[in-house]
Amino acid sequence: xxxxxxxxxxxxxxxxxxxxxxxxxxxxxxxxxxxxxxxxxxxxxxxxxxxxxxxxxxxxxxxxxxxxxxxxxxxxxxxxxxxxxxxxxxxxxxxxxxxxxxxxxxxxxxxxxxxxxxxxxxxxxxxxxxxxxxxxxxxxxxxxxxxxxxxxxxxxxxxxxxxxxxxxxxxxxxxxxxxxxxxxxxxxxxxxxxxxxxxxxxxxxxxxxxxxxxxxxxxxxxxxxxxxxxxxxxxxxxxxxxxxxxxxxxxxxxxxxxxxxxxxxxxxxxxxxxxxxxxxxxxxxxxxxxxxxxxxxxxxxxxxxxxxxxxxx
Length: 313
Known about the structure:
Blueprint: E1 9-12, H1 14-18, H2 28-41, E2 45-50, H3 63-69, E3 77-82, H4 85-93, E4 98-104, H5 107-114, H6 118-134, E5 138-144, H7 157-169, E6 174-179, H8 186-196, E7 205-209, H9 216-225, E8 230-233, H10 253-263, H11 271-278, H12 281-285, H13 293-296, H14 307-312
Parallel strand pairs: 1-8, 2-3, 3-4, 4-5, 5-6, 6-7, 7-8
Helix pairs in contact: 2-3, 4-6, 7-8, 8-9, 10-11
């Protein structure tokens, strides 16, 4: 029997993008517990951690141990973010199924985030793609600040598209357009996604939105309306870029799934299980998280009448 594909594929990034900005250390065992719980819910892709310098992102310095400790669910792709060839080597040794290479559309942000020029980043990608494919791993290439940079401002459409072309020519299997600091708007999203889908099929393109200015879900729907079908999201709305002033959390996974449920789009994910897992997050990270549906409950979660009205019924 053929299994119907979901209308929208949501890729979970809380273990990496969500936790990278946290100031308090999250124990390795708790990271593994979070990832195993996400696997059990049925995510097709989970971004587990990143292989970057531990002095730069100390919150993810246990990436090797986390990859070694997770229970891998058949059918789920476990991804590692990598900035360079050394990171790729570590990720492949840890048996990551997919390497997520990142370069910013903005040269200034790329220097701040990766400490590399565009030329150096692209040279690394060519080497990374070759070694990853030889090891049987996939390569996804992310265009960070695709919708705007906090240092340079807006990024020209053709500049972003040219980076996508370069990524594909260098061997990338998939592409992510990332709104790293939540600067995107729906009109801009529709235009860039429409043009990018002329270069790559929808099942190879991921949209990564942040909710910094409250437009995360609006932008996701704008992308969907012009053909996008894969999206990153983070449980509880966790996350943000450590190297982008003012950057706050990702689009919240359970809020996104609730929206899809309400308008009749399938995700293959069970909302109630996501809510229950999200309600554990404040204990995990030591503070409240930004997700709304876990606080408010599902729209049709009914409540009893006030006692005074019950007695008069």
